[in-house]
Write a structure and sequence with these properties.
It comes from Devosia ginsengisoli. This is DUF2937 family protein. Keywords: Membrane, Transmembrane, Transmembrane helix. By secondary structure, this protein is an all-alpha fold. The chain has 2 domains: 46 residues; 97 residues, no CATH class. It is built from 8 helices and no strands. Helix 1 runs antiparallel to helix 8. The two termini are 34 Å apart.
Length: 168
């Protein structure tokens, strides 16, 4: 009975962990799309500023110096957009250069972002056919098997009889 329950636990955790590489891939795709769109906005702003003989900081300073609250607000909004672009670009670079273990350690950071939540909301499970997916599934099976096997032994400990050793 213990082996069957441990095997079920192993299969369950294997199934769950095997999905992480697919989630990470879908997250990376969404993140890449966001970075691409922010790059377009950033480059367009920089081109418009250059056409006016300004660099980005000087163009933003003009927005901020404006007496028009709408223009001042647009300057603040553009500053936030550039910061987000820099942050998401750095995150994408980190993810693209991370190995499988580093990506797993970053899971809480993935889930704690707007992009991570939206990825999870639209996540589609997939069969792990990559080496990374197979390794996660194998690790999940072993971990699940060992945890449930140990838990089963602990829970049934009060109900096991001690065997008497008879010496002759």
């Amino acid at each position: 009975m213990r082996r069957m329950i441990a095997g079920i636990g192993g299969l369950g955790l294997a199934l769950v962990l095997s999905q992480f590489p697919e989630y990470a891939q879908q997250y990376t795709q969404r993140l890449g799309g966001a970075v691409d769109e922010l790059r377009v906005i950033t480059e367009d702003f920089d081109r418009a500023a250059a056409a006016g003989g300004l660099d980005r900081p000087a163009a933003l300073a003009r927005y901020e110096a404006s007496n028009d609250s709408f223009l001042a607000g647009r300057g603040t909004s553009m500053s936030a957009t550039f910061q987000r672009y820099d942050q998401l670009s750095a995150t994408l670079t980190r993810i693209e250069h991370a190995d499988a273990v580093e990506r797993l350690q970053s899971l809480p950071a993935y889930l704690d972002t707007d992009i991570g939540r939206r990825t999870l909301e639209s996540y589609k499970p997939a069969v792990p056919v990559t080496m990374e997916g197979i390794l996660y599934a194998g690790g999940g099976f072993i971990l699940g098997y060992l945890v449930l096997s140990g838990l089963w032994r602990f829970v049934t400990l009060p109900f096991t009889r001690k065997r008497r050793v008879v010496y002759r």
